[in-house]
Amino acid sequence: MSVPGAPFQLLYNELGVVIGTTSMMLPYTVLLLYGVMRGVDRRLLAAASSMGAGRVTIFRRIYLPLVAPGLASAGLLSFILSLGYYIHPRLMGRPQQTMIATLINQQVNQRKTS
Length: 114
What we know:
Blueprint: H1 14-38, H2 42-50, H3 55-83, H4 87-92, H5 100-113
């Protein structure tokens, strides 16, 4: 089985940087979400099911609000850790690509020299 356009060029472009950064942040996000989702009381879901709620309703009205703080904290943790990655985009991307972490690094270095 072949994929159209394979092999893909993932080095020195923005797609490669996004895939690389995502692969570095995914374990932190998954571990945090696993702990939050594991802590949801299954009796609440069973009670909603016994009262006639469907799967989508149980997910939307009970499960999602219970894990929403975990989703927010996982997103915030990944965002903050991604801000510190200025070497990774520099190595995988081109010098012409500007990432937020690179801009922050440039601004800090300019302030130090001024």
